[in-house]
Amino acid sequence: MNCVVDGDTFWYAGEKIRVADINTPEVSQPAYPREAELGRAATQRMHELLNAGAFTLEPVDRDRDRYGRLLRTVTRGG
Predict the structure, then answer these.
(1) What do you get for the CA distance between the two ends of the chain, in Å?
(2) Of 9, 12, 13, 28, whose CA is between 20 and 30 Å from 64?
(3) Looking at residue 14, which CATH number applies to its domain?
């Protein structure tokens, strides 16, 4: 299943992908109301960016994070 989890994590082709070196505000357990608001905005923006067209997942210097998510950069058109 393909879906956006939050502003820096999404499912794609059966793998949970974490965008490398990006950290967005939390949506699942925000520390305060403003973080929840910013987290929702980041999630919406990730959804828009991924749905804007074909993209490529590029490996980085480490394959997975401590939670087992693939670490990748997301590129479009180079």
Answers:
(1) 25
(2) 28
(3) 2.40.50.90
